[in-house]
Amino acid sequence: MSADTAVPVRAPEPRRARADGPARRAERVREALRRALPALVLYAAARLAGVATMASWAWSTGRHPRTLLGHSWDAIWYAGIAEDGYGLILPSPTSHSVIYSDYAFFPLFPGLVHALTALSPFSVVSAQLVVAWTAAACAAWGIYAVGERLYGRRAATWLVLLWGLLPHSIVQTMGYTESLMTALAAWALYAVVTRRHLWAGALALAAGLSRPNAIAVAAAVGCATLVVLYREPRSRADWRLWTGLALAPLGWGGYVLWAGYRSGFGPLGYFTVQRRWGSRFDFGADAFRFVRHLFTGRDGMAYYGSLGVLVVALVALVFLVLERPPAPLLAYTLVLCVIALGGSSYFASKPRFLLPAFPLLIPLALGMTRARSRTVAVTVGALAGLSCVYGTYLVTAARLPM
Fold first, then answer.
1. What pTM was estimated for this model as a whole?
2. What mean pLDDT is predicted for residues 261-269?
3. What secondary structure letter does DSSP report for 343?
4. Is residue 256 within 8 Å of residue 208, measured between CB atoms?
5. Coil, strand or helix: which one is 281?
Protein backbone atom coordinates (compact mmCIF):
# COMPACT_ATOMS: atom_id res chain seq x y z
CA MET A 1 0.00 0.00 0.00
CA SER A 2 1.39 3.39 -0.93
CA ALA A 3 1.59 6.36 1.39
CA ASP A 4 -1.15 8.10 -0.62
CA THR A 5 -3.64 5.30 -0.08
CA ALA A 6 -2.68 4.83 3.61
CA VAL A 7 -3.71 8.31 4.68
CA PRO A 8 -7.50 8.16 4.09
CA VAL A 9 -7.73 4.70 5.67
CA ARG A 10 -5.89 5.47 8.90
CA ALA A 11 -6.82 9.12 9.46
CA PRO A 12 -10.41 8.52 10.69
CA GLU A 13 -9.27 6.23 13.51
CA PRO A 14 -7.72 8.88 15.79
CA ARG A 15 -10.64 11.21 15.02
CA ARG A 16 -13.12 8.51 16.00
CA ALA A 17 -11.14 7.77 19.16
CA ARG A 18 -11.18 11.42 20.11
CA ALA A 19 -14.92 11.63 19.46
CA ASP A 20 -15.60 8.54 21.54
CA GLY A 21 -13.41 9.68 24.43
CA PRO A 22 -15.94 11.91 26.22
CA ALA A 23 -18.68 9.33 25.66
CA ARG A 24 -16.58 6.58 27.22
CA ARG A 25 -15.70 8.80 30.16
CA ALA A 26 -19.36 9.68 30.68
CA GLU A 27 -20.25 6.01 30.60
CA ARG A 28 -17.58 5.23 33.21
CA VAL A 29 -18.96 7.98 35.45
CA ARG A 30 -22.50 6.62 35.10
CA GLU A 31 -21.31 3.11 35.91
CA ALA A 32 -19.36 4.36 38.95
CA LEU A 33 -22.44 6.23 40.17
CA ARG A 34 -24.61 3.15 39.64
CA ARG A 35 -22.26 1.07 41.82
CA ALA A 36 -22.20 3.76 44.51
CA LEU A 37 -25.95 4.37 44.50
CA PRO A 38 -26.88 1.88 47.29
CA ALA A 39 -24.28 3.43 49.57
CA LEU A 40 -25.47 6.95 48.73
CA VAL A 41 -29.09 5.99 49.45
CA LEU A 42 -28.08 4.60 52.85
CA TYR A 43 -26.08 7.74 53.58
CA ALA A 44 -29.01 9.97 52.60
CA ALA A 45 -31.34 7.95 54.84
CA ALA A 46 -28.94 8.31 57.77
CA ARG A 47 -28.60 12.05 57.37
CA LEU A 48 -32.30 12.63 56.73
CA ALA A 49 -33.08 10.76 59.94
CA GLY A 50 -30.64 12.97 61.84
CA VAL A 51 -31.98 16.20 60.33
CA ALA A 52 -35.60 15.13 60.86
CA THR A 53 -34.95 14.36 64.52
CA MET A 54 -33.28 17.72 65.03
CA ALA A 55 -36.00 19.57 63.10
CA SER A 56 -38.78 17.96 65.13
CA TRP A 57 -37.18 19.02 68.39
CA ALA A 58 -36.39 22.51 67.09
CA TRP A 59 -39.99 23.12 66.01
CA SER A 60 -41.26 21.84 69.34
CA THR A 61 -39.15 24.48 71.10
CA GLY A 62 -40.18 27.31 68.78
CA ARG A 63 -37.03 27.50 66.67
CA HIS A 64 -36.55 27.09 62.94
CA PRO A 65 -34.26 24.22 61.88
CA ARG A 66 -33.06 26.10 58.78
CA THR A 67 -31.67 28.86 60.97
CA LEU A 68 -30.03 26.39 63.34
CA LEU A 69 -28.38 24.52 60.48
CA GLY A 70 -27.50 27.40 58.22
CA HIS A 71 -26.90 30.40 60.47
CA SER A 72 -25.21 29.27 63.68
CA TRP A 73 -21.67 29.90 64.94
CA ASP A 74 -19.15 29.77 62.07
CA ALA A 75 -21.98 29.72 59.52
CA ILE A 76 -22.75 33.31 60.51
CA TRP A 77 -19.23 34.34 59.56
CA TYR A 78 -19.39 32.50 56.25
CA ALA A 79 -22.71 34.21 55.46
CA GLY A 80 -21.15 37.58 56.18
CA ILE A 81 -18.21 36.88 53.86
CA ALA A 82 -20.57 35.65 51.13
CA GLU A 83 -22.62 38.85 51.37
CA ASP A 84 -20.03 41.55 52.07
CA GLY A 85 -16.58 40.08 51.46
CA TYR A 86 -13.69 40.13 53.93
CA GLY A 87 -12.72 42.81 56.42
CA LEU A 88 -14.96 42.35 59.47
CA ILE A 89 -13.14 42.57 62.84
CA LEU A 90 -14.97 42.27 66.16
CA PRO A 91 -13.66 42.35 69.75
CA SER A 92 -14.70 39.49 71.98
CA PRO A 93 -17.40 40.45 74.48
CA THR A 94 -15.82 38.21 77.14
CA SER A 95 -12.05 38.61 76.70
CA HIS A 96 -9.93 41.67 75.93
CA SER A 97 -7.18 39.45 74.48
CA VAL A 98 -9.44 37.86 71.86
CA ILE A 99 -10.24 39.70 68.62
CA TYR A 100 -12.33 38.03 65.93
CA SER A 101 -11.49 38.56 62.25
CA ASP A 102 -13.12 36.94 59.24
CA TYR A 103 -9.69 36.43 57.66
CA ALA A 104 -9.54 33.26 59.78
CA PHE A 105 -12.07 31.67 57.38
CA PHE A 106 -10.96 30.27 54.04
CA PRO A 107 -12.73 31.55 50.91
CA LEU A 108 -13.99 28.59 48.85
CA PHE A 109 -17.23 27.90 50.73
CA PRO A 110 -18.42 31.53 50.96
CA GLY A 111 -17.31 32.03 47.37
CA LEU A 112 -19.55 29.18 46.20
CA VAL A 113 -22.40 30.52 48.33
CA HIS A 114 -21.97 33.99 46.82
CA ALA A 115 -22.02 32.54 43.31
CA LEU A 116 -25.16 30.53 44.06
CA THR A 117 -27.02 33.52 45.47
CA ALA A 118 -26.04 35.55 42.39
CA LEU A 119 -27.34 32.88 40.00
CA SER A 120 -30.45 31.74 41.88
CA PRO A 121 -33.25 33.08 44.11
CA PHE A 122 -31.75 31.43 47.21
CA SER A 123 -31.01 33.53 50.26
CA VAL A 124 -27.52 33.28 51.74
CA VAL A 125 -28.66 30.91 54.51
CA SER A 126 -30.45 28.61 52.07
CA ALA A 127 -27.50 28.75 49.67
CA GLN A 128 -25.14 27.69 52.47
CA LEU A 129 -27.27 24.62 53.10
CA VAL A 130 -27.51 23.79 49.39
CA VAL A 131 -23.72 23.99 49.02
CA ALA A 132 -23.13 21.98 52.20
CA TRP A 133 -25.65 19.25 51.31
CA THR A 134 -24.36 18.98 47.75
CA ALA A 135 -20.81 18.75 49.06
CA ALA A 136 -21.87 16.08 51.57
CA ALA A 137 -23.30 13.95 48.74
CA CYS A 138 -20.12 14.40 46.70
CA ALA A 139 -18.07 13.52 49.78
CA ALA A 140 -20.05 10.33 50.33
CA TRP A 141 -19.49 9.34 46.71
CA GLY A 142 -15.77 10.12 46.96
CA ILE A 143 -15.45 8.10 50.17
CA TYR A 144 -17.18 5.20 48.42
CA ALA A 145 -14.83 5.48 45.44
CA VAL A 146 -11.75 5.31 47.66
CA GLY A 147 -13.14 2.43 49.70
CA GLU A 148 -14.23 0.45 46.64
CA ARG A 149 -10.86 0.90 44.97
CA LEU A 150 -8.93 -0.33 48.01
CA TYR A 151 -11.24 -2.78 49.80
CA GLY A 152 -14.23 -3.64 47.60
CA ARG A 153 -17.88 -2.62 47.36
CA ARG A 154 -19.14 -3.97 50.71
CA ALA A 155 -16.43 -2.26 52.73
CA ALA A 156 -16.95 0.94 50.73
CA THR A 157 -20.67 0.92 51.48
CA TRP A 158 -19.99 0.49 55.18
CA LEU A 159 -17.40 3.27 55.08
CA VAL A 160 -19.96 5.70 53.69
CA LEU A 161 -22.71 4.66 56.10
CA LEU A 162 -20.45 4.88 59.14
CA TRP A 163 -19.35 8.36 58.10
CA GLY A 164 -23.02 9.36 57.97
CA LEU A 165 -23.71 7.86 61.40
CA LEU A 166 -20.94 9.55 63.36
CA PRO A 167 -22.18 11.11 66.62
CA HIS A 168 -21.46 14.60 65.32
CA SER A 169 -22.41 13.96 61.68
CA ILE A 170 -25.11 16.65 61.95
CA VAL A 171 -22.28 19.03 61.01
CA GLN A 172 -22.23 17.46 57.54
CA THR A 173 -25.62 19.06 56.87
CA MET A 174 -24.88 22.44 58.45
CA GLY A 175 -23.55 25.60 56.79
CA TYR A 176 -19.99 24.53 57.62
CA THR A 177 -17.00 23.66 55.45
CA GLU A 178 -16.21 20.11 56.59
CA SER A 179 -18.37 18.46 53.92
CA LEU A 180 -16.79 20.56 51.17
CA MET A 181 -13.27 19.75 52.33
CA THR A 182 -14.11 16.05 52.69
CA ALA A 183 -15.49 15.92 49.16
CA LEU A 184 -12.37 17.48 47.66
CA ALA A 185 -10.07 15.42 49.89
CA ALA A 186 -11.79 12.12 49.09
CA TRP A 187 -11.62 12.67 45.35
CA ALA A 188 -8.03 13.87 45.62
CA LEU A 189 -7.16 10.65 47.47
CA TYR A 190 -9.01 8.67 44.81
CA ALA A 191 -6.91 10.43 42.18
CA VAL A 192 -3.81 9.53 44.19
CA VAL A 193 -4.60 5.81 44.44
CA THR A 194 -5.53 5.69 40.74
CA ARG A 195 -2.31 7.55 39.79
CA ARG A 196 -3.99 10.62 38.32
CA HIS A 197 -1.31 13.02 39.49
CA LEU A 198 -2.62 16.18 37.84
CA TRP A 199 -6.14 15.65 39.19
CA ALA A 200 -4.75 14.94 42.64
CA GLY A 201 -2.78 18.18 42.65
CA ALA A 202 -5.68 20.26 41.30
CA LEU A 203 -8.14 18.85 43.83
CA ALA A 204 -5.64 19.39 46.64
CA LEU A 205 -5.30 23.00 45.51
CA ALA A 206 -9.08 23.44 45.69
CA ALA A 207 -9.26 21.68 49.05
CA GLY A 208 -6.60 24.04 50.37
CA LEU A 209 -9.00 26.93 49.79
CA SER A 210 -11.69 25.35 51.96
CA ARG A 211 -10.25 24.93 55.46
CA PRO A 212 -7.02 25.46 57.44
CA ASN A 213 -6.52 21.73 58.05
CA ALA A 214 -6.85 20.97 54.33
CA ILE A 215 -3.06 21.18 54.18
CA ALA A 216 -3.43 17.46 54.99
CA VAL A 217 -4.54 16.87 51.38
CA ALA A 218 -1.36 18.47 50.04
CA ALA A 219 0.60 16.30 52.48
CA ALA A 220 -1.08 13.20 51.01
CA VAL A 221 -0.14 14.27 47.47
CA GLY A 222 3.44 14.91 48.59
CA CYS A 223 3.59 11.51 50.25
CA ALA A 224 2.24 9.84 47.12
CA THR A 225 4.90 11.57 45.03
CA LEU A 226 7.68 10.30 47.29
CA VAL A 227 6.29 6.76 47.14
CA VAL A 228 6.14 6.82 43.34
CA LEU A 229 9.66 8.21 43.04
CA TYR A 230 10.99 5.57 45.45
CA ARG A 231 9.30 2.64 43.74
CA GLU A 232 9.64 3.86 40.17
CA PRO A 233 12.77 6.01 39.71
CA ARG A 234 11.95 6.40 36.02
CA SER A 235 8.92 8.47 37.01
CA ARG A 236 11.25 11.41 37.61
CA ALA A 237 10.73 12.29 33.95
CA ASP A 238 6.93 12.43 34.29
CA TRP A 239 5.95 16.11 34.21
CA ARG A 240 2.45 15.31 35.48
CA LEU A 241 3.90 13.98 38.72
CA TRP A 242 5.83 17.18 39.39
CA THR A 243 3.01 19.46 38.23
CA GLY A 244 0.56 17.76 40.58
CA LEU A 245 3.04 18.11 43.44
CA ALA A 246 3.53 21.81 42.68
CA LEU A 247 -0.20 22.51 42.47
CA ALA A 248 -1.15 20.73 45.70
CA PRO A 249 -0.13 23.39 48.29
CA LEU A 250 -0.95 26.47 46.21
CA GLY A 251 -4.52 26.94 47.42
CA TRP A 252 -3.68 26.73 51.11
CA GLY A 253 -0.43 28.68 50.83
CA GLY A 254 -1.94 31.30 48.55
CA TYR A 255 -4.76 32.12 50.93
CA VAL A 256 -2.48 32.16 53.98
CA LEU A 257 -0.20 34.70 52.26
CA TRP A 258 -3.12 36.79 50.96
CA ALA A 259 -4.87 36.87 54.33
CA GLY A 260 -1.63 37.79 56.05
CA TYR A 261 -1.07 40.80 53.80
CA ARG A 262 -4.72 41.89 53.83
CA SER A 263 -4.86 41.68 57.63
CA GLY A 264 -1.80 43.92 57.88
CA PHE A 265 0.36 41.41 59.75
CA GLY A 266 2.71 40.43 56.94
CA PRO A 267 3.29 37.17 55.00
CA LEU A 268 2.57 34.92 57.98
CA GLY A 269 -0.05 37.21 59.44
CA TYR A 270 -2.76 34.60 59.04
CA PHE A 271 -1.34 32.82 62.07
CA THR A 272 -1.50 36.09 63.99
CA VAL A 273 -5.18 36.29 63.08
CA GLN A 274 -5.66 32.78 64.46
CA ARG A 275 -3.80 33.61 67.68
CA ARG A 276 -6.02 36.67 68.17
CA TRP A 277 -8.97 34.25 67.98
CA GLY A 278 -7.29 32.30 70.79
CA SER A 279 -6.25 29.46 68.49
CA ARG A 280 -2.66 28.31 68.05
CA PHE A 281 -0.70 25.08 67.73
CA ASP A 282 0.77 24.13 71.11
CA PHE A 283 1.39 20.40 70.56
CA GLY A 284 -1.67 19.48 72.60
CA ALA A 285 -0.74 21.23 75.86
CA ASP A 286 -4.04 23.11 76.09
CA ALA A 287 -6.02 19.98 75.18
CA PHE A 288 -4.22 18.02 77.91
CA ARG A 289 -5.00 20.70 80.49
CA PHE A 290 -8.65 20.71 79.47
CA VAL A 291 -8.90 16.92 79.67
CA ARG A 292 -7.42 17.08 83.17
CA HIS A 293 -10.03 19.70 84.04
CA LEU A 294 -12.80 17.38 82.82
CA PHE A 295 -11.59 14.65 85.18
CA THR A 296 -11.00 16.87 88.19
CA GLY A 297 -13.98 19.22 87.76
CA ARG A 298 -17.32 19.42 86.03
CA ASP A 299 -18.36 20.88 82.68
CA GLY A 300 -20.98 20.65 79.93
CA MET A 301 -21.97 17.30 78.45
CA ALA A 302 -20.75 18.37 74.99
CA TYR A 303 -17.20 18.53 76.32
CA TYR A 304 -17.41 14.98 77.65
CA GLY A 305 -18.93 13.89 74.37
CA SER A 306 -16.02 15.51 72.53
CA LEU A 307 -13.57 13.71 74.78
CA GLY A 308 -15.25 10.40 74.03
CA VAL A 309 -15.07 11.01 70.27
CA LEU A 310 -11.37 11.91 70.50
CA VAL A 311 -10.54 8.79 72.51
CA VAL A 312 -12.35 6.59 69.98
CA ALA A 313 -10.55 8.41 67.14
CA LEU A 314 -7.15 7.67 68.68
CA VAL A 315 -8.04 4.00 69.08
CA ALA A 316 -9.25 3.94 65.47
CA LEU A 317 -5.96 5.51 64.38
CA VAL A 318 -4.04 2.65 65.99
CA PHE A 319 -6.19 0.08 64.18
CA LEU A 320 -5.78 2.01 60.93
CA VAL A 321 -1.99 1.86 61.24
CA LEU A 322 -2.21 -1.89 61.88
CA GLU A 323 -4.36 -2.23 58.74
CA ARG A 324 -1.44 -0.80 56.72
CA PRO A 325 -3.41 1.43 54.33
CA PRO A 326 -1.69 3.19 51.42
CA ALA A 327 0.86 5.68 52.69
CA PRO A 328 -0.96 8.78 51.30
CA LEU A 329 -4.16 7.88 53.21
CA LEU A 330 -2.21 7.39 56.39
CA ALA A 331 -0.30 10.66 55.92
CA TYR A 332 -3.56 12.54 55.32
CA THR A 333 -5.17 11.07 58.44
CA LEU A 334 -2.13 11.64 60.65
CA VAL A 335 -1.87 15.31 59.68
CA LEU A 336 -5.57 15.84 60.43
CA CYS A 337 -5.22 14.16 63.83
CA VAL A 338 -2.11 16.15 64.73
CA ILE A 339 -3.79 19.45 63.81
CA ALA A 340 -7.00 18.60 65.68
CA LEU A 341 -5.31 17.35 68.83
CA GLY A 342 -2.37 19.75 68.82
CA GLY A 343 -4.36 22.96 68.47
CA SER A 344 -5.31 25.02 71.48
CA SER A 345 -8.77 26.16 72.58
CA TYR A 346 -12.17 25.19 71.12
CA PHE A 347 -12.10 21.71 72.62
CA ALA A 348 -15.73 21.06 71.66
CA SER A 349 -14.84 21.70 68.00
CA LYS A 350 -12.14 19.04 67.78
CA PRO A 351 -14.51 16.22 66.72
CA ARG A 352 -15.68 18.47 63.89
CA PHE A 353 -12.09 19.01 62.80
CA LEU A 354 -11.78 15.22 62.44
CA LEU A 355 -14.88 14.78 60.25
CA PRO A 356 -12.75 14.77 57.06
CA ALA A 357 -10.59 11.97 58.54
CA PHE A 358 -12.82 9.24 57.10
CA PRO A 359 -9.94 6.70 56.77
CA LEU A 360 -10.22 6.30 60.56
CA LEU A 361 -13.43 4.33 59.83
CA ILE A 362 -11.72 1.79 57.55
CA PRO A 363 -10.98 -0.81 60.27
CA LEU A 364 -14.57 -0.72 61.52
CA ALA A 365 -15.93 -0.87 57.96
CA LEU A 366 -13.83 -3.95 57.26
CA GLY A 367 -14.99 -5.48 60.53
CA MET A 368 -18.63 -4.91 59.63
CA THR A 369 -18.20 -6.86 56.39
CA ARG A 370 -17.31 -9.93 58.49
CA ALA A 371 -19.80 -9.41 61.34
CA ARG A 372 -22.92 -11.46 61.93
CA SER A 373 -26.32 -10.08 60.96
CA ARG A 374 -27.41 -9.56 64.57
CA THR A 375 -24.20 -7.69 65.39
CA VAL A 376 -24.67 -5.53 62.32
CA ALA A 377 -28.28 -4.70 63.23
CA VAL A 378 -27.43 -3.81 66.83
CA THR A 379 -24.42 -1.70 65.80
CA VAL A 380 -26.29 0.25 63.13
CA GLY A 381 -29.26 0.82 65.42
CA ALA A 382 -27.05 2.06 68.25
CA LEU A 383 -25.04 4.36 65.99
CA ALA A 384 -28.18 5.75 64.36
CA GLY A 385 -29.79 6.47 67.70
CA LEU A 386 -26.64 8.10 69.07
CA SER A 387 -26.17 10.18 65.93
CA CYS A 388 -29.76 11.45 65.92
CA VAL A 389 -29.92 12.24 69.63
CA TYR A 390 -26.42 13.66 70.06
CA GLY A 391 -26.65 15.70 66.84
CA THR A 392 -29.94 17.19 68.02
CA TYR A 393 -28.36 18.02 71.38
CA LEU A 394 -25.37 19.73 69.76
CA VAL A 395 -27.48 21.96 67.55
CA THR A 396 -30.40 22.77 69.85
CA ALA A 397 -29.17 22.53 73.44
CA ALA A 398 -25.38 22.49 73.82
CA ARG A 399 -24.93 26.26 73.28
CA LEU A 400 -21.24 25.70 72.60
CA PRO A 401 -19.32 26.59 69.42
CA MET A 402 -18.98 23.40 67.42
1. 0.92
2. 93
3. B
4. no
5. strand
